[in-house]
Write a structure and sequence with these properties.
This protein has four domains: 258 residues, 5'-nuclease (Rossmann fold, 3-Layer(aba) Sandwich); 209 residues, 2-Layer Sandwich (Nucleotidyltransferase, domain 5), CATH 3.30.420.10; 107 residues, Taq DNA Polymerase, Chain T, domain 4 (Up-down Bundle), CATH 1.20.1060; 138 residues, Orthogonal Bundle (DNA polymerase, domain 1). The termini are far apart. Strands 7, 8, 9, 10, 11, 12 and 13 form a seven-stranded mixed beta sheet that branches. A six-stranded mixed beta sheet has the order 3-2-1-4-5-6. It is α/β, with parallel strands linked by helices. A hairpin with a 2-residue loop joins strand 23 and strand 24. The protein is built from 39 helices and 25 strands.
Length: 918
């Protein structure tokens, strides 16, 4: 018969540990509440329960009343700092979670948790029950026995360890009964137990190993060879004996409770779910759903369509309902290469249909009928289901009917896939991923699994559960039809249910207009941009790679010359030794693996030694070569001969688009080498040109509009250079007397103010004193007082509402805006200043993209929008259309959103991106 297990948790210790575990990166919910300690505490509880699987358990807290130790020693725990307010505020929530998990909470007046735990452990041992004491306190080692172990909590990032008598003998070379003697000598600074001054752990262990007890060590003090230790033992005899009494645990606390009342019980699932939702612990909802049995019972009526007659009947029902969810199951994640495995549809909650398709050799060899980008998958697709060509032909009319409304989860993916089969999906009016993003823009997790858990309290079948992971992962084509059918139908069903929930929330938070007028139309624009791709000059990149390789070799030789030896330049550990041990340069902060050698450290060191300057250049060129020059040719689609980046609509908190594979936003333009990479982005045929349209100082213009500053608006209205005028105003010179250096400083000030930069940040950027930076900022606000008012007003509104908005009402929540943590609060304040500006710039270019795309369609132009980077749009245009496209682009970009200052767009044309942008 297996031994029963009892777990006793030191609640106060675990709460403190949980709080400090996340102190550098606290968890703040949308209400601005710090929930770090609660979250870490609950996660720890689940981890403990999973690992030990106890039959009995309890959480014990210290009593607030004085204990016998306070009576024996008035200064006991007197040096402990007051509990941080951010932790004390979370304790009631921690208790609520413990109660919801139906774990008994014990707190005995006049006794510490340590003594209560000691008493219960001894009682359990008498009944042959194995006890685990969950704590980080070494005092508990005195209780160790074959039936009593310590589950020792370690520092953040370190795994807990099980401590038993064998561990104690191996590591401390003493037995449990000698622990109070050992601690009586060393004392405990946390509890203000003095011990014997001058005796540390090493000496204490040696004394106990030699003499057996503290009392014996004191009695035989004259036998100790060290005069210092000998004198300490004699001088602090009474203090040592008091310390031993203070650290000795009392196992006779009057605990009137039977062990049976500590038996583990079923969690209160309803209460737990409410707490998870209230504190926004979305990742813990999955555990709740999986383990509690409280999963909401969702009505499911799913069907697999295997005949043409069934498909025709489904098509008629979709047409009758007029609005439905569409989802494709495919053979891969790259929409430009994956083959369709099946379609799923849903038009009412709880009812969904899966249409598997099969591919045969005739279909696979008829790529011209399936679309110009059709690429044969490397893996075979199922043979069950109707032929893909037949299904596509039957579905195409309703797919392309814009009067039939379609909804999806990341529907852009499905649109790209379908376009390769010759289907232009029209009538898209909802995307659950985009809707979730608008509601929670700072959260990057908008996948269907998470949204279903969060909004529907339902755990759906995950992709990992369907196909496995790692070496055991199979392709979707190998999954049995009944399993993939359920998975696909559930995806469509959950997407429809989510639409109903999210649509109401968008309207509640006044985001529906932004969603319908900007984000949804933008999906089609981005889909076409991804499908269009851009031509790449591969020979140019190959030549550039060779040149970079030669330059890197030269830099390597210079680096080895200044360092005095060869080493692995890409190894931070080896580099740290060269800089700080061999060359004796001023040491930077230490990391877990050695010295920090990041860019900030190297830039400071470059002021006093030439080697860091060469290292900075080496790193920059190495990154260019590996990230872009050598990688871009590998990313070219073999079937189109073009590079197809992915535009991410649901990533940045400000509303800006990002891109991946490759990340176009990070291609450098300030160095000659970086600019050469832009030269590789070219045209696909000689009768086309690249047209580049770039907003001029758009964020400063938006700041002028939002702040309504008269002087700033006047500068833009007169068409003057804003940095020159700012330099003249701040530095007290005439505009014609402004030097390039003064203009550079004014530019840093303009952008620094806009990004909420303070004196320290500006001083660092301009390499001036903090006092000078303060003077510059003060002069700026004297000349531009309405900008200062805008900043003050915006921060105040953010503190009141908890969020800021753009001109089109895009929201960004700032939960840290009222934080007691100054660093976090100041970061939130800087974000509050910048987000309305940067977010409005994001809204502006999105509206412009939609309007340009529609104009191209209406005018039947062949020009294509091929890239969007920051405030810049790039087009591939037939030479015959250049002038018309220029006119359209300028008109739509400059008038996308009406501002109180003119919006200016710089347009250039060339054979490649670099020439067009020049």
């Amino acid at each position: 018969m297996a031994t029963k297990k009892l777990v006793l948790i030191d609640g106060s210790h675990l709460a403190y540990r949980s709080y400090f575990a996340l102190i550098r990166n606290p968890l703040i919910n949308s209400k601005g509440e710090n929930t770090s300690a609660v979250y870490a505490f609950v996660r720890s509880l689940y981890k403990i329960l999973d690992e030990i699987k106890p039959d009995y358990l309890a959480v014990i807290f210290d009593s607030s009343e004085p204990t016998f130790r306070h009576k024996q020693f008035e200064a006991y725990k007197a040096t402990r700092e007051k509990m941080p307010d951010e932790l004390s505020e979370q304790l009631p929530r921690i208790r609520s979670f413990i109660e919801a998990m139906r774990i008994p909470i014990l707190e005995i007046p006049g006794y510490e948790a340590d003594d209560v735990m000691a008493t219960l452990a001894q009682k359990a041992a008498e009944q042959q029950i194995e006890t685990y004491l969950v704590t980080g306190d070494k005092d508990f080692f005195q209780l160790l026995s074959p039936l009593i172990k310590v589950y020792r909590l370690r520092r953040s990032g370190e795994e807990a360890e099980i401590v038993d008598p064998q561990w104690l003998q191996q590591n401390w070379k003493i037995n449990p009964q000698q622990v109070p003697d050992f601690l009586g000598l060393t004392g405990d600074s946390i509890d203000n137990i003095p011990g014997v001054p001058g005796i540390g752990e090493k000496t204490a262990k040696e004394l106990i190993q030699k003499f057996g007890t503290l009392e014996a060590a004191i009695a035989c003090a004259n036998e100790v060879s060290s005069a210092k230790i000998r004198n300490a033992l004699n001088q602090y005899k009474e203090q040592a004996e008091l310390s031993k009494r203070l650290v000795t645990l009392d196992s006779n606390v009057p605990v009137v409770i039977e062990l049976e009342s500590l038996r583990r019980q079923q969690e209160n699932s309803e209460a737990l779910l409410a707490l998870f939702k209230d504190l926004e612990f979305n990742s813990l909802i999955a555990r709740y759903v999986q383990s509690s049995g409280a999963k909401e019972c969702l009505r499911q009526n799913y069907h697999t369509i295997l005949t043409k007659g069934e498909l025709l009947k489904l098509i008629e029902e979709l047409k009758t309902h007029g609005s439905f969810v569409i989802d494709t199951e495919t053979s891969g994640v790259d929409p430009l290469r994956a083959e369709i495995v099946g379609f799923s549809f849903a038009y009412q909650e709880g009812v969904a249909f899966y249409v598997p398709v099969c591919h045969n050799e005739k279909d696979e060899n008829s790529s011209e009928k399936l679309g110009p980008l059709f690429a044969k998958s490397q893996k075979s697709v199922p043979t069950q289901g109707l032929p893909v060509k037949q299904v596509i032909n039957l579905l195409k009319p309703i797919m392309e009917n814009e009067k039939l409304h379609k909804c999806g989860q990341n529907i852009k993916y499905d649109m790209v896939v379908l376009s390769r089969y010759g289907v232009e999906l029209s009538g898209v009016d909802f995307d659950t991923m985009v809707a979730s993003y608008l509601l929670n823009p700072s959260d990057r997790r908008h996948n269907l699994d998470r949204l279903t858990l969060e909004y529907l309290n339902h755990k759906k079948v995950t992709t990992e559960e369907l196909i496995g992971k790692g070496k055991k992962q199979i392709s979707i084509q190998e999954v049995p039809l009944e399993q993939i059918s359920f998975y696909a139908c559930e995806d469509a069903d959950m997407t429809l249910r989510l639409r109903h929930v999210l649509e109401a929330k968008l309207q509640e938070f006044e985001l529906y207009d932004l969603f319908k007028q900007v984000e949804i139309p933008l999906i089609s624009v981005l889909m076409e941009m991804e499908r269009n791709g851009v031509a790449i000059d591969v020979p140019l990149l190959q030549n550039l790679s060779r040149q970079l390789g030669e330059q890197l070799q030269r830099l390597e030789e210079e680096i080895f010359k200044f360092s005095g030896e060869k080493f692995n330049i890409n190894s931070p550990q080896q580099l740290g030794k060269i800089l700080f041990e061999r060359l004796k340069l001023p040491r930077a902060r230490r990391t877990k693996t050695g010295y920090s050698t990041d860019v900030n450290v190297l830039e400071e060191l470059a002021k006093i030694h030439p080697l860091p300057r060469y290292l900075l250049e080496y790193r920059q060129l190495m990154k260019l070569k590996s990230t872009y020059v050598d990688t871009l040719p590998k990313l070219i689609n073999p079937h189109t001969g073009r590079l197809h980046t992915s535009y991410n609509q649901t990533v940045t908190a400000t509303g800006r688009l990002s891109s991946s594979d490759p990340n176009l936003q990070n291609i450098p333009i300030r160095t000659d080498w970086g600019r050469e990479i832009r030269r590789a982005f070219t045209v696909g045929s000689p009768d086309h040109l690249i047209l580049d349209a770039d907003y001029s100082q758009i964020e400063l213009r938006i700041m002028a509009h939002l702040s309504r500053d008269a002087r700033l608006r006047k500068t833009f209205q007169k068409g003057e250079d804003v940095h020159t005028i700012t330099a003249a105003e701040v530095f007290g010179v005439k505009p014609e007397e402004v030097t390039p250096e003064l203009r550079r400083r004014a530019k840093e000030i303009n952008f620094g103010i806009m990004y909420g930069m303070g004196p320290f940040g500006l001083a660092s950027r301009l390499e001036i004193s903090v006092e000078e930076a303060e003077e510059f900022i003060r002069n700026y606000f004297i000349k531009y007082p309405d900008v200062n008012d805008f900043i003050i007003r915006t921060i105040a509104e953010a503190k009141e509402k908890g969020y800021v908005t753009t001109l089109l009402n895009r929201r960004r929540y700032l939960p840290e805006i009222n934080s007691e943590n100054r660093r976090m609060r100041e970061f939130a304040e800087r974000t509050a200043i910048n987000t309305p500006i940067q977010g409005t710039a994001a809204d502006l270019i999105k509206v412009a993209m939609i309007r340009i795309w529609r104009q191209f369609k209406n005018r039947r132009l062949s020009a294509k929008m091929i890239m969007q980077v920051h405030d810049e749009l790039v087009f591939e245009v037939p030479k015959a259309e250049v002038e018309e496209v220029k006119q359209v682009v300028r008109q739509e970009m400059e008038n996308a959103i009406q501002l109180q200052v003119p919006v200016k767009v710089d347009i250039g044309v060339g054979a490649n991106w670099l020439e067009a942008h020049a």
